[in-house]
Amino acid sequence: MQRITNPSSGAHRRTGEVYQLTPEEITAYRRDGYLVIDDVLTAAELAPLEEWFDHFVAGKEADRMGRDFCDMSQPYGTPLADFQLVNAMLPSKYQPELANNIFHRISQAIADQLYPEGQAAMDYEQFLAKRPNQEKAEFAMHQDLGYWPKTKNTWTATFSLALTDSELVNGCLQVVPGTNREPELRAHKPKGHAEGGSREDSHTLVIESKPTDEVVYLPVRRGSMTIHDERIVHGSGGNLSPTWRKTYVAAYRDQETIRQERAMGFTHSHNDEVDWDKVLN
Ligand SMILES: O=C(O)CCC(=O)C(=O)O
Description:
Elements: E1 2-3, E2 14-15, E3 18-19, H1 23-32, E4 34-37, H2 43-57, E5 69-71, E6 85-89, H3 91-94, H4 102-114, E7 120-130, E8 139-142, E9 156-162, E10 173-176, E11 189-190, E12 205-206, E13 216-217, E14 225-228, E15 233-236, E16 245-254, H5 255-263, H6 276-279
Parallel strand pairs: 1-13
Antiparallel strand pairs: 2-3, 4-14, 5-6, 6-7, 7-16, 8-15, 9-14, 9-16, 10-13, 10-15, 11-12
The structure holds 2-oxoglutaric acid (AKG).
2-oxoglutaric acid (AKG) is lined by residues 128, 139, 144, 158, 160, 173, 234, 236, 247, 249.
């Protein structure tokens, strides 16, 4: 098993709200489909974000979120008491106070370094929390693009900000480097499809791994981030630790791509009513 870190990254790279990537990092991101950058947000910046995170994950907004508050490892309708992998989609939509927060501003400035300046915009965000001692709090292996409608342009930078240390034991992100360069997207099926399950029963899609897939784990400290693209095969394991794993995700795409998604009725809300047979890649 390989563990990836990026020792040359760190708080010294930040000037105000701009975290400067190196040309080597940008090259590595394009080649491998992911990047790890350390110590991006300070403790003072993380504290208010974590307060909102805990508020959502406790289910305080659940009444008006519908399926946007769900468990990504179990079917819709699972009672909150039984949640393993808590997912709160689009938190700023439900609490506009969160709009344009420090994580958004910093990740936007990084997305602008990875993709054509002025074209990247935040497409969606989500809070993901793995409860302690939940070995089934797994994120099935997938490619993000497998979840999304077909658009002309697909580029995406998805940022995962660690609000707690993210380790192998609590189910950190795992990726299969280089799968971002596979010519075809892999087939994605709804979790439980063998038993007749559909995307209506659970949002989760799964792919079959290949024997050649070499997984690497991306442990990160609180305040650090991973960035991955739309094609890399990735997922995460269960939480075998006695503490939570908390991650704040924000994804950036081309503004024209976002416009095309919205025209299809796709906002990344699990409450969207989309004809998947029509719009899938
Ligand atoms: O952080 C995780 O456990 C998985 C998140 C993920 O799959 C994603 O953000 O696309």
